[in-house]
Amino acid sequence: MKAWLNRAGMVAGFALILGWCLLPVAWIVSMSFKSQEAVTNGSPGFFPSEGGGAGWQNYIDVLQDDQFARAILNSIGISLIATILSVTFATFTAYAVARLEFKGKKFVLTTALVIAMFPVVSLVGPLFDMWRTLGIYDTWLGLIIPYMSFTLPLAIWTLSAFFREIPWEMEQAAQVDGATAWQAFRRVIVPLAAPGVFTAAILTFFFAWNDFVFGISLTSTESARPIPAALSFFVGADPFNRPASLLAAGAVVATVPIVVLVLVFQRKIVAGLTAGAVKG
Amino acid sequence: MSTTIAPDADRTRTATASDRTRAENSLARKLVAPAIVLMLLVTAFPMLRALYLSLFNYSLTAPDDREFVGLSNYVTALTDSLFWRDTANTVMIMVVTVVFELVIGFAFAMVMHRVIFARGVVRTSILIPYGIITVVSGFAWQFAFSNSNGFINSWLPFIGDDFNWFAEYPSSMIAIMASEIWKTTPFMSLLLLAGLAQVSEDMIEAAKVDGASWWQRLWKVILPNMRSAIMVAVLFRALDAYRIFDNIFVMTAGANGTESISFLTYRQVIEQFQLGIGSALSVLLFLSVLLVAYLIVKLFRVDLAAARQEG
Protein backbone atom coordinates (compact mmCIF):
# COMPACT_ATOMS: atom_id res chain seq x y z
CA MET A 1 0.00 0.00 0.00
CA LYS A 2 2.76 2.42 1.02
CA ALA A 3 4.89 1.52 -1.98
CA TRP A 4 1.88 2.00 -4.18
CA LEU A 5 1.21 5.46 -2.69
CA ASN A 6 4.84 6.36 -3.22
CA ARG A 7 4.69 5.33 -6.82
CA ALA A 8 1.47 7.28 -7.39
CA GLY A 9 3.08 10.35 -5.85
CA MET A 10 6.08 10.02 -8.12
CA VAL A 11 3.92 9.73 -11.22
CA ALA A 12 1.92 12.80 -10.12
CA GLY A 13 5.12 14.78 -9.49
CA PHE A 14 6.51 13.65 -12.82
CA ALA A 15 3.35 14.82 -14.61
CA LEU A 16 3.43 18.10 -12.72
CA ILE A 17 7.00 18.88 -13.78
CA LEU A 18 6.29 18.03 -17.41
CA GLY A 19 3.16 20.20 -17.33
CA TRP A 20 5.00 23.09 -15.71
CA CYS A 21 7.80 23.03 -18.25
CA LEU A 22 5.95 22.26 -21.43
CA LEU A 23 2.51 23.89 -21.09
CA PRO A 24 3.65 27.49 -21.76
CA VAL A 25 5.78 26.24 -24.65
CA ALA A 26 2.80 24.37 -26.08
CA TRP A 27 0.75 27.51 -25.57
CA ILE A 28 3.05 29.76 -27.57
CA VAL A 29 3.18 27.16 -30.35
CA SER A 30 -0.61 26.98 -30.36
CA MET A 31 -0.82 30.78 -30.38
CA SER A 32 1.44 30.91 -33.43
CA PHE A 33 -1.17 28.96 -35.39
CA LYS A 34 -3.98 31.41 -34.67
CA SER A 35 -4.75 33.58 -37.68
CA GLN A 36 -4.14 37.31 -37.64
CA GLU A 37 -7.84 38.14 -38.12
CA ALA A 38 -8.89 35.85 -35.29
CA VAL A 39 -6.38 37.50 -32.94
CA THR A 40 -7.51 41.01 -33.91
CA ASN A 41 -11.14 40.16 -33.24
CA GLY A 42 -10.23 38.33 -30.04
CA SER A 43 -9.94 34.58 -29.91
CA PRO A 44 -9.66 33.37 -26.33
CA GLY A 45 -8.85 29.79 -25.53
CA PHE A 46 -5.82 27.53 -25.62
CA PHE A 47 -6.26 26.24 -29.16
CA PRO A 48 -7.04 28.18 -32.34
CA SER A 49 -10.80 28.48 -32.68
CA GLU A 50 -12.83 26.83 -35.41
CA GLY A 51 -11.86 28.64 -38.63
CA GLY A 52 -9.39 30.83 -36.73
CA GLY A 53 -6.33 28.78 -37.59
CA ALA A 54 -3.58 30.17 -39.77
CA GLY A 55 -1.75 27.02 -40.80
CA TRP A 56 1.89 27.85 -41.49
CA GLN A 57 1.11 31.37 -42.70
CA ASN A 58 2.57 33.14 -39.62
CA TYR A 59 5.83 31.23 -39.99
CA ILE A 60 6.03 32.04 -43.67
CA ASP A 61 5.44 35.74 -42.90
CA VAL A 62 8.02 35.81 -40.12
CA LEU A 63 10.73 34.10 -42.13
CA GLN A 64 10.11 36.40 -45.09
CA ASP A 65 10.44 39.47 -42.86
CA ASP A 66 13.83 41.04 -43.59
CA GLN A 67 14.30 42.54 -40.15
CA PHE A 68 13.58 39.25 -38.46
CA ALA A 69 15.92 37.29 -40.73
CA ARG A 70 18.61 39.87 -40.10
CA ALA A 71 18.08 39.63 -36.32
CA ILE A 72 18.47 35.85 -36.45
CA LEU A 73 21.72 36.27 -38.34
CA ASN A 74 22.94 38.88 -35.84
CA SER A 75 22.07 36.71 -32.87
CA ILE A 76 23.77 33.62 -34.28
CA GLY A 77 26.91 35.50 -35.30
CA ILE A 78 27.28 37.57 -32.15
CA SER A 79 26.50 34.69 -29.80
CA LEU A 80 28.88 32.29 -31.54
CA ILE A 81 31.81 34.72 -31.63
CA ALA A 82 31.27 35.77 -28.01
CA THR A 83 31.03 32.11 -26.97
CA ILE A 84 34.24 31.05 -28.69
CA LEU A 85 36.28 33.97 -27.32
CA SER A 86 34.80 33.81 -23.83
CA VAL A 87 35.37 30.07 -23.47
CA THR A 88 38.94 30.38 -24.72
CA PHE A 89 39.81 33.00 -22.12
CA ALA A 90 37.87 31.17 -19.42
CA THR A 91 39.79 27.97 -20.17
CA PHE A 92 43.11 29.74 -19.51
CA THR A 93 41.78 31.28 -16.32
CA ALA A 94 40.16 28.11 -15.00
CA TYR A 95 43.37 26.17 -15.60
CA ALA A 96 45.31 28.68 -13.52
CA VAL A 97 42.64 28.65 -10.81
CA ALA A 98 42.27 24.88 -10.57
CA ARG A 99 45.87 23.96 -11.06
CA LEU A 100 48.42 26.63 -10.21
CA GLU A 101 49.31 28.28 -6.94
CA PHE A 102 49.58 32.02 -7.46
CA LYS A 103 49.02 35.31 -5.77
CA GLY A 104 45.73 36.89 -6.69
CA LYS A 105 43.69 33.70 -7.10
CA LYS A 106 41.22 35.03 -4.55
CA PHE A 107 41.02 38.29 -6.49
CA VAL A 108 40.15 36.43 -9.70
CA LEU A 109 37.39 34.41 -8.05
CA THR A 110 35.96 37.41 -6.22
CA THR A 111 35.92 39.47 -9.40
CA ALA A 112 34.07 36.68 -11.20
CA LEU A 113 31.53 36.43 -8.39
CA VAL A 114 30.88 40.16 -8.25
CA ILE A 115 30.46 40.37 -12.01
CA ALA A 116 28.06 37.43 -12.07
CA MET A 117 25.83 39.43 -9.73
CA PHE A 118 26.34 42.81 -11.36
CA PRO A 119 23.15 44.72 -12.21
CA VAL A 120 23.69 44.97 -15.96
CA VAL A 121 21.30 47.89 -16.40
CA SER A 122 23.60 50.10 -14.32
CA LEU A 123 26.20 49.75 -17.10
CA VAL A 124 24.11 50.66 -20.12
CA GLY A 125 24.40 54.41 -19.56
CA PRO A 126 28.18 54.65 -19.41
CA LEU A 127 28.61 51.93 -22.06
CA PHE A 128 26.17 53.73 -24.36
CA ASP A 129 28.27 56.86 -23.97
CA MET A 130 31.64 55.07 -24.33
CA TRP A 131 30.60 52.94 -27.30
CA ARG A 132 29.42 56.03 -29.17
CA THR A 133 32.73 57.75 -28.52
CA LEU A 134 34.65 54.67 -29.66
CA GLY A 135 32.42 54.19 -32.69
CA ILE A 136 31.32 50.66 -31.80
CA TYR A 137 27.75 51.59 -30.86
CA ASP A 138 25.28 49.54 -32.92
CA THR A 139 27.93 47.07 -34.16
CA TRP A 140 28.51 43.37 -33.53
CA LEU A 141 31.69 44.18 -31.61
CA GLY A 142 29.75 46.48 -29.28
CA LEU A 143 27.66 43.52 -28.15
CA ILE A 144 30.35 40.83 -28.28
CA ILE A 145 32.49 42.63 -25.69
CA PRO A 146 29.83 42.90 -22.95
CA TYR A 147 28.59 39.36 -23.67
CA MET A 148 32.11 38.05 -23.16
CA SER A 149 32.55 39.89 -19.88
CA PHE A 150 29.28 38.64 -18.48
CA THR A 151 29.66 35.04 -19.56
CA LEU A 152 33.23 34.71 -18.29
CA PRO A 153 32.26 34.10 -14.62
CA LEU A 154 29.92 31.19 -15.42
CA ALA A 155 32.44 29.73 -17.87
CA ILE A 156 35.29 30.08 -15.36
CA TRP A 157 33.33 28.34 -12.59
CA THR A 158 32.08 25.53 -14.78
CA LEU A 159 35.54 24.91 -16.18
CA SER A 160 37.31 25.11 -12.81
CA ALA A 161 34.90 22.50 -11.45
CA PHE A 162 35.63 20.23 -14.40
CA PHE A 163 39.38 20.81 -14.20
CA ARG A 164 39.49 19.78 -10.55
CA GLU A 165 38.21 16.33 -11.59
CA ILE A 166 40.92 15.73 -14.17
CA PRO A 167 43.61 13.18 -13.23
CA TRP A 168 46.50 15.61 -12.97
CA GLU A 169 49.12 12.90 -12.39
CA MET A 170 49.17 12.63 -16.15
CA GLU A 171 50.30 16.21 -16.41
CA GLN A 172 53.01 15.62 -13.82
CA ALA A 173 54.07 12.51 -15.70
CA ALA A 174 54.43 14.60 -18.84
CA GLN A 175 56.44 17.18 -16.92
CA VAL A 176 58.71 14.47 -15.51
CA ASP A 177 59.26 13.33 -19.10
CA GLY A 178 60.57 16.80 -19.84
CA ALA A 179 57.53 18.76 -21.03
CA THR A 180 57.19 22.38 -19.88
CA ALA A 181 54.12 23.54 -17.98
CA TRP A 182 52.71 24.96 -21.20
CA GLN A 183 53.30 21.78 -23.22
CA ALA A 184 51.76 19.68 -20.49
CA PHE A 185 48.74 21.95 -20.56
CA ARG A 186 48.29 21.84 -24.32
CA ARG A 187 49.11 18.23 -25.08
CA VAL A 188 47.73 16.41 -22.05
CA ILE A 189 45.08 18.51 -20.39
CA VAL A 190 43.25 20.10 -23.30
CA PRO A 191 42.00 16.78 -24.71
CA LEU A 192 40.89 15.65 -21.25
CA ALA A 193 39.17 18.96 -20.57
CA ALA A 194 37.31 19.12 -23.89
CA PRO A 195 33.95 17.91 -22.51
CA GLY A 196 33.98 20.60 -19.81
CA VAL A 197 34.90 23.25 -22.33
CA PHE A 198 32.02 22.11 -24.47
CA THR A 199 29.56 22.41 -21.57
CA ALA A 200 30.81 25.88 -20.73
CA ALA A 201 30.33 26.82 -24.37
CA ILE A 202 26.68 25.75 -24.38
CA LEU A 203 25.91 27.70 -21.18
CA THR A 204 27.70 30.75 -22.57
CA PHE A 205 25.74 30.52 -25.79
CA PHE A 206 22.46 30.38 -23.82
CA PHE A 207 23.39 33.55 -21.98
CA ALA A 208 24.34 35.46 -25.12
CA TRP A 209 21.24 34.27 -26.98
CA ASN A 210 19.04 35.30 -24.04
CA ASP A 211 20.45 38.79 -23.44
CA PHE A 212 17.99 41.63 -23.75
CA VAL A 213 19.33 44.64 -21.83
CA PHE A 214 22.46 45.14 -23.96
CA GLY A 215 20.57 44.15 -27.09
CA ILE A 216 18.10 47.02 -26.82
CA SER A 217 20.49 49.61 -25.33
CA LEU A 218 23.58 49.28 -27.47
CA THR A 219 21.92 48.93 -30.86
CA SER A 220 19.69 51.31 -32.79
CA THR A 221 19.21 49.67 -36.17
CA GLU A 222 18.92 46.21 -37.60
CA SER A 223 22.64 46.10 -38.33
CA ALA A 224 23.37 44.55 -34.93
CA ARG A 225 20.01 44.10 -33.20
CA PRO A 226 19.70 40.56 -31.81
CA ILE A 227 16.52 38.47 -31.72
CA PRO A 228 15.12 39.28 -28.25
CA ALA A 229 15.36 43.00 -28.99
CA ALA A 230 13.91 42.57 -32.47
CA LEU A 231 10.97 40.59 -31.04
CA SER A 232 10.21 43.27 -28.49
CA PHE A 233 10.26 46.03 -31.12
CA PHE A 234 8.28 44.03 -33.67
CA VAL A 235 5.11 45.97 -34.48
CA GLY A 236 4.09 44.60 -37.87
CA ALA A 237 2.11 46.48 -40.46
CA ASP A 238 -0.36 48.13 -38.08
CA PRO A 239 1.34 49.82 -35.11
CA PHE A 240 -1.89 50.03 -33.08
CA ASN A 241 -2.59 46.37 -33.31
CA ARG A 242 0.29 44.23 -32.17
CA PRO A 243 0.44 41.09 -34.32
CA ALA A 244 0.34 38.64 -31.43
CA SER A 245 0.26 35.44 -33.44
CA LEU A 246 3.06 36.64 -35.72
CA LEU A 247 5.13 37.45 -32.62
CA ALA A 248 4.37 34.00 -31.26
CA ALA A 249 5.68 32.46 -34.49
CA GLY A 250 8.83 34.59 -34.19
CA ALA A 251 9.22 33.51 -30.57
CA VAL A 252 8.96 29.86 -31.57
CA VAL A 253 11.59 30.32 -34.27
CA ALA A 254 13.91 32.01 -31.73
CA THR A 255 13.39 29.12 -29.32
CA VAL A 256 14.15 26.31 -31.75
CA PRO A 257 17.97 26.53 -31.45
CA ILE A 258 17.71 26.40 -27.65
CA VAL A 259 15.42 23.37 -27.71
CA VAL A 260 17.72 21.58 -30.14
CA LEU A 261 20.76 22.26 -27.93
CA VAL A 262 18.87 21.07 -24.84
CA LEU A 263 17.68 17.88 -26.54
CA VAL A 264 21.14 16.99 -27.78
CA PHE A 265 23.24 17.98 -24.77
CA GLN A 266 20.88 17.58 -21.81
CA ARG A 267 23.23 15.47 -19.70
CA LYS A 268 26.19 17.81 -20.12
CA ILE A 269 24.21 20.96 -19.37
CA VAL A 270 22.90 19.56 -16.08
CA ALA A 271 26.39 18.46 -15.07
CA GLY A 272 27.82 21.88 -15.92
CA LEU A 273 25.17 23.88 -14.10
CA THR A 274 25.41 21.94 -10.87
CA ALA A 275 29.17 21.40 -10.85
CA GLY A 276 29.92 25.10 -11.00
CA ALA A 277 27.45 26.12 -8.35
CA VAL A 278 27.93 23.58 -5.61
CA LYS A 279 31.60 22.78 -5.60
CA GLY A 280 32.82 26.29 -6.38
CA MET B 1 76.20 31.74 10.20
CA SER B 2 73.79 28.89 9.72
CA THR B 3 73.40 29.68 6.03
CA THR B 4 77.12 29.27 5.38
CA ILE B 5 77.15 25.76 6.79
CA ALA B 6 73.93 24.71 5.15
CA PRO B 7 74.55 21.75 2.83
CA ASP B 8 74.66 22.55 -0.87
CA ALA B 9 71.89 20.14 -1.72
CA ASP B 10 69.45 22.01 0.51
CA ARG B 11 70.22 25.33 -1.12
CA THR B 12 69.64 24.05 -4.60
CA ARG B 13 66.32 22.55 -3.55
CA THR B 14 64.98 25.84 -2.18
CA ALA B 15 66.31 27.63 -5.23
CA THR B 16 64.43 25.29 -7.59
CA ALA B 17 61.29 25.53 -5.49
CA SER B 18 61.23 29.31 -5.57
CA ASP B 19 62.07 29.29 -9.28
CA ARG B 20 59.14 27.03 -9.79
CA THR B 21 56.86 29.24 -7.70
CA ARG B 22 57.95 32.23 -9.71
CA ALA B 23 57.38 30.40 -13.00
CA GLU B 24 53.95 29.28 -11.81
CA ASN B 25 53.09 32.78 -10.72
CA SER B 26 54.06 34.29 -14.02
CA LEU B 27 52.31 31.63 -16.09
CA ALA B 28 49.18 32.05 -13.98
CA ARG B 29 49.24 35.79 -14.42
CA LYS B 30 49.49 35.44 -18.19
CA LEU B 31 46.63 32.94 -18.26
CA VAL B 32 44.36 35.01 -16.05
CA ALA B 33 45.09 38.44 -17.51
CA PRO B 34 42.82 38.45 -20.60
CA ALA B 35 39.73 37.39 -18.66
CA ILE B 36 40.36 39.83 -15.82
CA VAL B 37 41.02 42.74 -18.17
CA LEU B 38 37.84 42.01 -20.10
CA MET B 39 35.69 41.67 -17.01
CA LEU B 40 36.97 44.90 -15.53
CA LEU B 41 36.88 46.79 -18.85
CA VAL B 42 33.14 46.36 -19.14
CA THR B 43 32.24 46.71 -15.45
CA ALA B 44 34.72 48.53 -13.23
CA PHE B 45 35.65 51.16 -15.80
CA PRO B 46 32.07 52.09 -16.82
CA MET B 47 31.05 52.02 -13.18
CA LEU B 48 33.75 54.57 -12.33
CA ARG B 49 32.63 56.59 -15.33
CA ALA B 50 29.04 56.45 -14.04
CA LEU B 51 30.26 57.65 -10.67
CA TYR B 52 31.92 60.60 -12.40
CA LEU B 53 29.00 61.42 -14.71
CA SER B 54 26.55 61.24 -11.82
CA LEU B 55 28.07 64.45 -10.49
CA PHE B 56 26.99 66.40 -13.56
CA ASN B 57 23.80 67.74 -14.97
CA TYR B 58 24.29 66.03 -18.31
CA SER B 59 21.75 65.34 -21.00
CA LEU B 60 22.69 63.80 -24.33
CA THR B 61 20.16 66.06 -26.04
CA ALA B 62 22.20 69.09 -24.90
CA PRO B 63 25.76 67.79 -24.37
CA ASP B 64 27.32 71.28 -24.34
CA ASP B 65 25.27 72.37 -21.32
CA ARG B 66 27.01 69.83 -19.10
CA GLU B 67 27.69 71.35 -15.69
CA PHE B 68 29.03 70.10 -12.39
CA VAL B 69 26.27 69.79 -9.80
CA GLY B 70 27.91 67.74 -7.03
CA LEU B 71 25.61 65.31 -5.27
CA SER B 72 22.37 66.95 -6.29
CA ASN B 73 21.46 64.12 -8.70
CA TYR B 74 21.56 61.74 -5.75
CA VAL B 75 19.42 64.08 -3.70
CA THR B 76 16.94 64.31 -6.56
CA ALA B 77 16.77 60.52 -6.91
CA LEU B 78 16.59 59.73 -3.21
CA THR B 79 13.89 62.31 -2.48
CA ASP B 80 11.76 61.20 -5.42
CA SER B 81 8.90 58.90 -4.46
CA LEU B 82 9.30 57.15 -7.83
CA PHE B 83 12.68 55.80 -6.75
CA TRP B 84 11.27 54.35 -3.54
CA ARG B 85 8.15 53.00 -5.19
CA ASP B 86 10.28 51.16 -7.78
CA THR B 87 12.68 49.89 -5.12
CA ALA B 88 9.73 48.56 -3.13
CA ASN B 89 8.40 46.84 -6.27
CA THR B 90 11.78 45.28 -6.93
CA VAL B 91 12.19 44.02 -3.37
CA MET B 92 8.67 42.61 -3.42
CA ILE B 93 9.28 40.79 -6.70
CA MET B 94 12.56 39.44 -5.34
CA VAL B 95 11.09 38.12 -2.09
CA VAL B 96 7.92 36.64 -3.58
CA THR B 97 9.58 34.96 -6.56
CA VAL B 98 12.46 33.52 -4.53
CA VAL B 99 10.11 32.06 -1.91
CA PHE B 100 7.91 30.44 -4.57
CA GLU B 101 10.91 29.21 -6.51
CA LEU B 102 12.49 27.73 -3.40
CA VAL B 103 9.38 25.78 -2.42
CA ILE B 104 8.41 24.61 -5.92
CA GLY B 105 12.04 24.09 -6.89
CA PHE B 106 12.60 21.89 -3.84
CA ALA B 107 9.52 19.81 -4.63
CA PHE B 108 10.79 19.37 -8.20
CA ALA B 109 14.25 18.44 -6.93
CA MET B 110 12.72 15.78 -4.63
CA VAL B 111 10.78 14.29 -7.53
CA MET B 112 13.83 14.33 -9.81
CA HIS B 113 15.96 12.79 -7.06
CA ARG B 114 13.54 9.92 -6.41
CA VAL B 115 12.07 9.30 -9.82
CA ILE B 116 13.37 6.05 -11.29
CA PHE B 117 11.81 6.15 -14.73
CA ALA B 118 12.38 8.53 -17.64
CA ARG B 119 15.02 10.64 -15.88
CA GLY B 120 16.24 11.93 -19.22
CA VAL B 121 12.76 13.16 -20.17
CA VAL B 122 12.33 15.08 -16.90
CA ARG B 123 15.75 16.69 -17.07
CA THR B 124 15.37 17.60 -20.70
CA SER B 125 12.03 19.28 -20.14
CA ILE B 126 13.22 21.10 -17.04
CA LEU B 127 15.97 22.70 -19.11
CA ILE B 128 13.50 24.15 -21.63
CA PRO B 129 12.29 27.04 -19.40
CA TYR B 130 15.89 27.60 -18.32
CA GLY B 131 17.08 27.98 -21.91
CA ILE B 132 14.13 29.93 -23.29
CA ILE B 133 14.63 33.64 -23.93
CA THR B 134 13.09 35.71 -21.14
CA VAL B 135 11.42 37.94 -23.74
CA VAL B 136 9.70 34.88 -25.20
CA SER B 137 8.58 33.78 -21.75
CA GLY B 138 7.21 37.29 -21.16
CA PHE B 139 5.23 37.20 -24.42
CA ALA B 140 3.92 33.70 -23.75
CA TRP B 141 2.56 34.71 -20.34
CA GLN B 142 1.29 38.06 -21.54
CA PHE B 143 -0.74 36.34 -24.26
CA ALA B 144 -1.84 33.66 -21.80
CA PHE B 145 -3.19 36.28 -19.37
CA SER B 146 -4.69 38.40 -22.17
CA ASN B 147 -8.47 38.67 -21.99
CA SER B 148 -8.90 38.78 -25.75
CA ASN B 149 -6.63 35.94 -26.80
CA GLY B 150 -5.47 34.10 -23.68
CA PHE B 151 -6.64 30.95 -21.94
CA ILE B 152 -6.00 31.70 -18.26
CA ASN B 153 -9.28 33.51 -17.63
CA SER B 154 -11.28 30.58 -18.92
CA TRP B 155 -9.19 28.07 -16.91
CA LEU B 156 -9.35 29.88 -13.57
CA PRO B 157 -12.67 29.25 -11.83
CA PHE B 158 -13.19 32.55 -9.95
CA ILE B 159 -12.06 34.90 -12.68
CA GLY B 160 -14.48 36.40 -15.21
CA ASP B 161 -13.72 35.74 -18.86
CA ASP B 162 -13.20 39.41 -19.64
CA PHE B 163 -11.01 40.23 -16.63
CA ASN B 164 -8.11 42.42 -17.79
CA TRP B 165 -5.00 41.40 -15.87
CA PHE B 166 -2.98 44.33 -17.17
CA ALA B 167 -5.45 47.05 -16.20
CA GLU B 168 -4.34 47.40 -12.60
CA TYR B 169 -1.33 47.03 -10.35
CA PRO B 170 -1.84 43.83 -8.31
CA SER B 171 -2.91 41.62 -11.19
CA SER B 172 -0.16 43.00 -13.44
CA MET B 173 2.41 42.14 -10.79
CA ILE B 174 1.01 38.61 -10.52
CA ALA B 175 1.39 38.16 -14.28
CA ILE B 176 4.97 39.46 -14.23
CA MET B 177 5.92 37.25 -11.32
CA ALA B 178 4.26 34.20 -12.92
CA SER B 179 6.54 34.56 -15.93
CA GLU B 180 9.60 35.11 -13.74
CA ILE B 181 8.83 32.12 -11.50
CA TRP B 182 8.06 29.84 -14.42
CA LYS B 183 11.32 30.60 -16.18
CA THR B 184 13.71 30.40 -13.22
CA THR B 185 12.30 27.64 -10.99
CA PRO B 186 14.05 24.94 -13.06
CA PHE B 187 17.44 26.57 -12.41
CA MET B 188 16.66 26.60 -8.70
CA SER B 189 15.57 22.97 -8.75
CA LEU B 190 18.77 21.86 -10.50
CA LEU B 191 20.92 23.59 -7.89
CA LEU B 192 18.85 22.02 -5.10
CA LEU B 193 19.01 18.64 -6.82
CA ALA B 194 22.81 18.81 -6.68
CA GLY B 195 22.58 19.64 -2.96
CA LEU B 196 20.12 16.81 -2.38
CA ALA B 197 22.49 14.34 -4.01
CA GLN B 198 25.10 15.18 -1.39
CA VAL B 199 22.89 14.24 1.57
CA SER B 200 23.90 10.76 2.68
CA GLU B 201 21.22 8.10 2.17
CA ASP B 202 22.55 6.20 5.23
CA MET B 203 21.75 9.13 7.48
CA ILE B 204 18.18 9.32 6.20
CA GLU B 205 17.83 5.56 6.56
CA ALA B 206 19.16 5.74 10.13
CA ALA B 207 16.63 8.43 11.03
CA LYS B 208 13.90 6.24 9.53
CA VAL B 209 14.99 3.26 11.65
CA ASP B 210 14.94 5.49 14.72
CA GLY B 211 11.30 6.22 13.98
CA ALA B 212 11.52 9.75 12.53
CA SER B 213 8.50 10.69 10.44
CA TRP B 214 8.83 11.88 6.84
CA TRP B 215 8.36 15.48 8.00
CA GLN B 216 11.01 15.13 10.73
CA ARG B 217 13.46 13.55 8.30
CA LEU B 218 12.94 16.48 5.94
CA TRP B 219 13.48 19.20 8.54
CA LYS B 220 16.05 17.58 10.82
CA VAL B 221 18.15 15.57 8.37
CA ILE B 222 17.73 16.59 4.74
CA LEU B 223 17.42 20.38 4.91
CA PRO B 224 20.20 21.03 7.46
CA ASN B 225 22.55 18.88 5.40
CA MET B 226 21.99 20.80 2.20
CA ARG B 227 21.99 24.31 3.54
CA SER B 228 25.07 25.40 1.61
CA ALA B 229 23.38 24.42 -1.65
CA ILE B 230 20.23 26.26 -0.57
CA MET B 231 22.20 29.33 0.35
CA VAL B 232 24.02 29.44 -2.99
CA ALA B 233 20.74 28.98 -4.86
CA VAL B 234 18.96 31.71 -2.88
CA LEU B 235 21.81 34.17 -3.21
CA PHE B 236 22.09 33.70 -6.97
CA ARG B 237 18.38 33.82 -7.64
CA ALA B 238 17.70 36.77 -5.31
CA LEU B 239 20.33 38.94 -6.96
CA ASP B 240 19.12 37.85 -10.38
CA ALA B 241 15.54 38.70 -9.43
CA TYR B 242 16.62 42.10 -8.13
CA ARG B 243 17.79 42.94 -11.65
CA ILE B 244 14.37 42.13 -13.16
CA PHE B 245 13.91 44.02 -16.40
CA ASP B 246 13.02 41.89 -19.42
CA ASN B 247 9.65 40.63 -18.19
CA ILE B 248 8.50 44.09 -17.13
CA PHE B 249 9.64 45.66 -20.39
CA VAL B 250 7.73 43.11 -22.46
CA MET B 251 4.62 42.59 -20.36
CA THR B 252 3.66 46.02 -18.99
CA ALA B 253 6.43 48.46 -19.99
CA GLY B 254 6.10 49.81 -16.46
CA ALA B 255 2.41 50.70 -16.74
CA ASN B 256 0.26 50.93 -13.57
CA GLY B 257 3.28 51.46 -11.36
CA THR B 258 4.89 48.09 -12.14
CA GLU B 259 8.35 49.55 -12.81
CA SER B 260 11.43 47.97 -11.28
CA ILE B 261 14.53 49.90 -10.32
CA SER B 262 16.38 48.55 -13.38
CA PHE B 263 13.55 49.73 -15.60
CA LEU B 264 13.62 53.23 -14.10
CA THR B 265 17.37 53.47 -14.71
CA TYR B 266 17.00 52.25 -18.28
CA ARG B 267 14.21 54.74 -18.96
CA GLN B 268 16.28 57.68 -17.70
CA VAL B 269 19.37 56.79 -19.67
CA ILE B 270 18.24 55.26 -22.95
CA GLU B 271 14.81 56.77 -23.47
CA GLN B 272 15.30 60.22 -22.00
CA PHE B 273 19.06 60.58 -22.53
CA GLN B 274 19.48 61.96 -19.00
CA LEU B 275 22.98 60.63 -18.48
CA GLY B 276 23.59 62.62 -15.28
CA ILE B 277 20.64 61.47 -13.21
CA GLY B 278 20.70 58.13 -15.02
CA SER B 279 24.28 57.57 -13.86
CA ALA B 280 23.31 58.45 -10.30
CA LEU B 281 20.55 55.82 -10.54
CA SER B 282 23.08 53.33 -11.94
CA VAL B 283 25.33 53.89 -8.94
CA LEU B 284 22.40 53.54 -6.55
CA LEU B 285 21.28 50.34 -8.29
CA PHE B 286 24.76 48.90 -7.96
CA LEU B 287 24.96 49.86 -4.28
CA SER B 288 21.55 48.35 -3.55
CA VAL B 289 22.61 45.06 -5.15
CA LEU B 290 25.69 45.04 -2.93
CA LEU B 291 23.48 45.73 0.08
CA VAL B 292 21.09 42.92 -0.82
CA ALA B 293 24.00 40.50 -1.26
CA TYR B 294 25.44 41.54 2.10
CA LEU B 295 22.09 41.18 3.85
CA ILE B 296 21.44 37.73 2.41
CA VAL B 297 24.86 36.44 3.43
CA LYS B 298 24.42 37.97 6.87
CA LEU B 299 20.85 36.78 7.29
CA PHE B 300 21.74 33.24 6.41
CA ARG B 301 24.46 33.14 9.01
CA VAL B 302 21.99 34.25 11.66
CA ASP B 303 19.51 31.74 10.37
CA LEU B 304 22.02 28.93 10.43
CA ALA B 305 23.08 29.67 13.98
CA ALA B 306 19.46 29.72 15.07
CA ALA B 307 18.83 26.42 13.34
CA ARG B 308 21.79 24.85 15.08
CA GLN B 309 20.65 26.00 18.50
CA GLU B 310 17.22 24.53 17.93
CA GLY B 311 18.64 21.18 16.82
From TrEMBL, chain A:
It is a multi-pass membrane protein. Residues 72-265 form the ABC transmembrane type-1 domain. Pfam families: BPD_transp_1. PROSITE patterns: ABC_TM1 (PS50928). Keywords: Cell membrane, Membrane, Transmembrane, Transmembrane helix, Transport. InterPro entries: BP-dep_ABC_trans_perm (IPR050901), MetI-like (IPR000515), MetI-like_sf (IPR035906). GO terms for biological process: transmembrane transport. The chain crosses the membrane at residues 12-33, 71-95, 107-128, 140-163, 184-209, 244-265. SUPFAM superfamilies: MetI-like. It comes from the Bacteria. It is found in: Cell membrane. GO terms for cellular component: plasma membrane. Signal peptide: none annotated. Its main location: membrane. Belongs to the binding-protein-dependent transport system permease family. PANTHER family: INNER MEMBRANE ABC TRANSPORTER PERMEASE PROTEIN YCJP, MALTOSE TRANSPORT SYSTEM PERMEASE-RELATED. This is Carbohydrate ABC transporter permease.
